[in-house]
Amino acid sequence: MSHAKYNVINTHVHNIDGVAKVTGRATYTFDVKLPGMLYGKILRSPHAHAKIKNIDTSAAMALPGVKIVVTGKDTLGVKQGIWRRYEELCDEQVLPLEKVRYIGEPVAAVAAITEEIAEAALDLIEVDYEVLPAVYEPLEAIKKEAPTIHEGVERNVNVTRHIEWGDVDEAFEEADYIREDWFKCSGQAHMCMETRAAVSSFTPDGKLTCWASTQSAYYTQGLLAGVLGLREGDVRVLAPYVGGGFGGKFELDAAMFTSAVMSMKLFKPVKVCFTREEDFIASKRRTPMFYYVRTGIKKDGTFCARESRMFSNGGAYTGMGATALYLSGFFHSFPYKWRGYRYDGYRVYTNTLPSTSMRGFGAPQAMFCSEQQIDWICADLGLDPFEVRRKNGHTEGYEVPGQAFIQSCGLEQCINEIEKWVKSKGKLPANRGIGISSCGFMSGGIFNWFDSPYSFSSAVVTINVDGTVELHVGCQDIGQGSNTTMAIIAAETLGVKVEDIRVHSGDTAHCPADLGAWGSRQTLMAGNAVKMACEDAKKQLLEFAYAEMGINIVYDLDIKDRWAHIVARPERGLPYVDLVKKALRAKDGQRIMGRGYYTPHRKGMISPAYSYMMQAVDAEIDPETGKIKIHEVMTAHDCGQPINQLGLIGQLEGAASMALGYAYLEDMPMEDGKLMNPNLVDYKVIKAPEMPEAGIIEIDTFEPEGPYGAKEAGEGLTNPTAAALGNAIYNAMGIQMKELPITPERVLKALREKKEQEAQK
Amino acid sequence: MINDFHYLKPASLKEALAMYAEHDDCKVICGGQSLLIVMRQGMVAPEYLLDIKHVKELSYIKFDEKDGLRIGATTTHREIEKSDIIAKKYPVLVAMEEKLASIQTRNWGTIGGNLAHADPAGDPGPVLIALNAEIKFGNSGGEKLVPLDEFFVDYFETQMEQGDLVLEVHVPAPEPKFGCAYQKFNLLDSDMGIVAAAASVTLNADGTCKDVRIVLGNAGPIPLRVTKAEDLLKGKKLDDALFAEAGTIASEECMPVADIHASEEHRRHVLGVLTKRMLKKAFEQAQTAA
Questions:
Q1: Domains annotated on chain A, with CATH
Q2: Residue A186 has pLDDT above 50, yes or no
Q3: What's the confidence (pLDDT) of residue B1?
Q4: Partner residue facing B260 (CB), from A116, A677, A687
Q5: Strand (E) positions, A45-152?
Q6: Which pick of A264, A641, A642, B91 has the fewest CB atoms within 10 Å?
Q7: In terms of DSSP bridges, do strands A610-621 and A628-638 run parallel, antiparallel, or are they unpaired?
Q8: What ipTM goes with this model?
Q9: What is the nearest CA distance from A690 to chain B, expressed in angstroms?
């Protein structure tokens, strides 16, 4: 593809917030301290399912230093949810009035002059529960005789999703070989460095300011206004720095809600920060999924049909789980062309910690099943896994029937590059294998379940007299580096340097609305808005340049590297700063201001653009202990035009560590709904010594819908890894891993079963 | 949340022992890498904390060819890890320390604190028992020296009584034809072992096994010697078949407890594997040792 030569795009740009962060000067919500601020703590349910008969707060109120104790009765009792377009999916009262549905669910909150007093007060609140029968697994909860978790919800089925195209049954009939498998995919904690935290300050003028650790200041604003009975405009949400989100921080959480409720009653600022344990037990998780996968294929490797059923453990509430249900089913078809495809997903309520979106949004689970089964089918039929993937893979211009239109696709090159890489490794030692997995991911979601009347992304750019630039965006930097990405796009478009740009984000009062950081949407959507805003501003500047330079209007003008000039004769021009000053004078002192926005139109149901990748994982198994050692992860990746090389590497390595953790370490075991490892000793997150080399091969494509050809880069990289590790183990040991995480014990069990089967033969 | 406590900071060993004798509800801290965790969980809430971090008399590493190695109780893990003489004479100790938690923990945690804490999953216990170490502890009234494998009594319990401080660890000079190896099985390199095994082998001049010690970590209430497995090997000419058999015996002899990280069955199995492997490794070292 032919790209224009860029000055800033695709270089190594350090995170513009980096210095503030590493010197400890960045103010996270956790650091916010206001005069007269009180500290809040939340009392949580010890029961998985129980009626709240009575809550006696008198003893807690009497404790010196306690300023308020609130329960559901002190709230408007609004049932809220982020799928606010659908009333039936707004099912969560953050402080429930009638019953609790999972262990850890908030039942009351206290604000006191110190955290210690607030915590001591929790012990003095007396809750009279009537314990109800509970159910923890979706395949149990869906049975007729299972306890009802939400009144009126039959068989505890929260949401269903049917996706179908082609004549599936006919396509299966054409298949020479059909394979069926069941898989079990586990949950995963988001494990943000910063736990959920909020500081709310309600003032007598009827306005609320809330500092929140959120992935979307706009969603938080809208949701808070809804549950508090305020106008959206009277709620200002600030999220200057956020210590990670990974899909877990764009719903309304108990820190935001309880701090706001208490602040409104007291007219004092209230801070609520979750402990790490609270973050584990009560801040939602990756959705555990059971997958049944049936795939039909011709002898020559042509895919015919796939039919899958998925049952997910929804936990107690909907959250973002409804989206995960759809996306899992959609990406389960990826990145292949199926003549017939049918998916039925069932999200089932249980009395456990609710599940929601998490990096990959249902796709890592879907790929774990799909990509392993494809390798097993290839082995069953003696086909080459690279060839089969190439043969059936998406290509540019392909339409996923009724769902998506693929404008750019580098899948084939990804497969070719990884094939070369794997072959270059030669023969591996015993007990060592390389597994592959390919997938794709979206660049932002289209379906507007939040029912936002605003455009999906917007940006305002203002040029100061000295040429420095104020860029106001609603997109949220949660550590992934979107502020830097936006600064790069702005600098490139305006023809200035990154250090000329100051990015303002995370403030609903000063920044234009944007749906925020989820679904890999910001580079494409907010990037387009920023590009449009900067083009708008630049056009205004160049109008003055035409007049100033007195040139023939057939010439094109541009600004590059702070130099406004004739494109055909770059030496003829004037300094950008002089141009800005002149333009100001000419405009009667009004500053140059550009506006931009983006809303997808006619781009199908899911996303305006898709990234593609193939990943290889090189792993070694200790056949006696089952221990897994990961040697290397290599990814060939088509994210369109990379915006920031450094940012891309950071995303790749972060995704690899998170996805490997999901594949073989991280788990959320529960006993009767109680999480057994809510701490960082027992919950295993990859640390530096375990982190393998993670390399990247960039595949050059150009996405017409993206700013400068860019599409998503970061979330999708979480999708292929568990499957690639599973395939590596299959190639090394000949065992099929159908359950996550792939623990040493499960490896040994599979090895034993394989031995027994061989002995029987 | 950590309870409020009185902080005692003795300047000398004598003062430390005197203070400890005076205060009943008192815990010793010397880095707090173990204590602060249980205090934060509210499991321990002492009225007094006696901080012996500054008692310099107890921080030393001494080696003598005849007497062996003496490590003062407040010596940090990192000092042991970085000691040239220990690297030369007892490389297994350095290898063990290198994988004990994180550098931050090793910089602050001490050998005496680790042993006094008596967590059966701790790393130094099994290795030091395999090295035939002794431990010296005492109070204002006097001192006691006991073999380390008699020191541990139960989960988080030792022979020490209230008022006793760990003073020193003594490791005898290595015998000729001696080898010692340790490995833990875990998911993350820096974690405590889900299970662990240390083994030492001393060979006679004729190559037969003079002495052998097998000590398992997190395989019971204390760092656990599996004597039946040891007895199998003593006096014999060692080989792979014997190591495998010893592993099988060890996996039967140990008493691990299941938790979310591994079942009892898996623990027993891996303890057997590690026993076999550490015996072989120690044996090979002993063969090549002077």
A1: 18-25+456-598 (3.30.365.10), 32-132+193-244+249-282 (3.90.1170.50), 285-446+604-760 (3.30.365.10)
A2: yes
A3: 75
A4: A677
A5: 50-56, 66-71, 99-100, 106-112, 126-131
A6: B91
A7: antiparallel
A8: 0.94
A9: 7
